[in-house]
Amino acid sequence: MLRYIFIALFFWFSIPHFLCAQKADPNKFDFNRIGKNVNSSYHESSPLVSPDGSTLYFTRTNHPDNKKGTDGGQDIWFSEKQPNGKWGPAQHMKSPLNNRRFNEVMWISPDGNYLLVRGASKKKEDGLAITTRKGDSWSTPTPLDVKDFLKMRKGRFSGATMNSDMSVLILYFSEKDNDKFSDLYVSFRVSGTAYSTPMRLESLNTRRDEFAPYLSQDDRTLYFASNRPGGHGGMDIYWAERMDDTWLRWSKPMNIGKPINTDGFDAYFSLDNEGNAFSTRTYPGTVGNSLDILGLIPKPPVLTLSGTILDKSTQMPAQVSLELINVHAKVDTFFYNNEGGYYEINLPQDYEYDFKIALGSKTLISQQLKTPKIKQDSTMVLDFEIDAPKKLASLSGLVLNKNTNLPVECEIKINGPENFTTNNDAFDGAYGVELAKEGSYEITINTEGFLAVSLPVEIEAEHFDNGYILDIYLSPLEVGTTVRLDNVFFDFDKASLKTTSYGALDKVVEFLEGTPSMQIEISGHTDNVGNDQYNRKLSKDRARAVKKYLVSQGIAEWRITSQGYGADKPEVANDSDENRAINRRVEFTILDM
């Protein structure tokens, strides 16, 4: 029978079977309307879903098709789930059910073939009865003989549920005349349809209202409604765990929490085998009898990938970056930068990722990761220990056209204690690498249309924190281009080449071999110290020595001219020892391509 005449809402949730052990998280569900096949302008209440989730039983009040029509009658209706997952049109339960004014399904057996319904006989609205499925219909309800129940039951409302083998009844009623508040009781089957005198469940009852009991499929968890203090609204759903087989000892009832409970009236909770839950929600103070059945559809379960990345030698957080790239269309990328060495990211299930741990531009770990399919929120832990240096030295700069100062896009090779190959940025010419080891490095650029360059760089550990900046200017391969020959050395005040010069000159040989039609001039230059005539002769002799070496290595003599300019063409003013050292040089200039 109706407890409240307000606006009623059925709610359909999907929740984990372990809901009894935790509050429902509102962030894990989306609201969804079940549809107009079940909703109507009449008052529906007391939803009860079959364990297999195929049938939803509920009561509908004052419908013209009810046994008592619109004169306050409450009948059993049901809806069947369709192949598309939606609920079909509501159907009125036919005879021999709906045989009194207030009809209700209060329990469904695990196999769906037995129903506990309200009423012991056509003459009595009170009492309980069992009906059995017969094909597409149901048998005439068989009354249950619960000793002293009709004598004890004096309040306005009553009802019950059962355990899975029908050996235990959980009832609600009041022993006070016309009392609108009920308490919970337990009764045990004695034989057949006979049950013992109900006993109060003292650990569950309060001075307030407890009603609408529902047992989970394992017979361990009891859900019921109560308006006890501390709830969210007028009536909330609670749960408690059975502590032993006496059925008298229960854990402290816990509020099931939001979003199932609201600041309105929430009661009549039931679950199917998949965790889909239903309840009735009503709001006092609203005119009329109206109904919406809403659903809480579960969001896809979340897979959390987490772990630590530690330096193997120190067991301290490794200062590295972590990157995940989805190999499908969508790319999910994040970088680990946590002083605690901990990373965490939520990933969709059944996806493939490239998983990389890098130290600067150097990849330390690279592997493919496929996330598994999951049925509930799960955590996947991947811990790493890596050999990571404590510090890195940054080496960066620009690669520019020497004549125009415009960026030159190129490949840069860095060889030394560590070897790198990288490309600079085509937009601004910038490059950058991070070196983990100190020592002597050589930067080599050999790109089409420009003279190749090889530059030495000395990386020292004490300067790691400051970084190194080296801008590189490339000379275009065109007539008139002049290139300084670094690392060409002579004996003091002589024109004899030191053997340490051969490496630099061999690169000139290699370059000329690659451009067989090119002609060049080798030019020698001095500073302004000493006699001009002597300086011109020394510079000319040194230029000839360079030409002689190139010819000795197979370059045709006609391709090379030599000239000494003394101090006539300084690069900078001869006003310091440093500048005079710059002006003492050997160059070559392209004369013809």
From TrEMBL:
Residues 479-593 form the OmpA-like domain. It is found in: Cell outer membrane. Coiled coil: none annotated. One of its GO terms (cellular component) is cell outer membrane. Keywords: Cell outer membrane, Membrane, Signal. The keyword Glycosyltransferase does not apply. This is Membrane protein.
